[in-house]
Amino acid sequence: KELNFKVEFFAISQVDNKFIKNLNHGMGLSTKLFFKKHLLQILKEPLQDKICKKEVSYKCDELVYTFKEENHQIILNITN
């Protein structure tokens, strides 16, 4: 609550072994099943206070490749 996250906690005994298979990183969760079950709920969340940029960055070795859209053009910026 202090960090403004919406979270529910469950006991280990509540793991259903169908949707969530284990408690390791990733929980053995099927990404396809996750989105099938929760995508509509995620999309209905209000976008207030969320910043959305039209850019993506990829790090490769010592360089960072940043692609962004400006004036209907894709701009590439390479930094190290």
* Average pLDDT: 80
Approximately how much beta-strand content do the residues carry? 25-35%
Our Rg estimate from Cα atoms comes to 19 Å
Shape, please?
elongated
Low-confidence stretches: none
Please summarize the sheet with the most strands.
Answer: 3 strands, antiparallel
Please provide the ordered H/E string of secondary-structure elements.
HEEE
Describe the fold and architecture.
This protein is α+β, with helices and mostly antiparallel strands. It folds into 2 domains: 1-45, no CATH class; 51-80, no CATH class. The chain is 18% helix and 26% strand. The protein is built from 1 helix and 3 strands; from the N terminus they run H-E-E-E. It has one helix at 31-44, and strands spanning 55-60, 63-70, 73-79. A 3-stranded antiparallel beta sheet has the order 1-2-3, with no helix packed on it. The protein is elongated, with a radius of gyration of 19 Å. The two termini are 37 Å apart. 0% of the residues are buried. This is DUF2920 family protein. It holds the Pfam family DUF2920.
Please provide a brief summary of the model:
With 80 residues, this protein is an alpha+beta fold.
Features:
1 helix, three-stranded antiparallel sheet, alpha+beta, 80 residues, 18% helix
Topology:
Blueprint (H helix, E strand, L loop, with lengths): L30 H14 L10 E6 L2 E8 L2 E7 L1
Antiparallel strand pairs: 1-2, 2-3
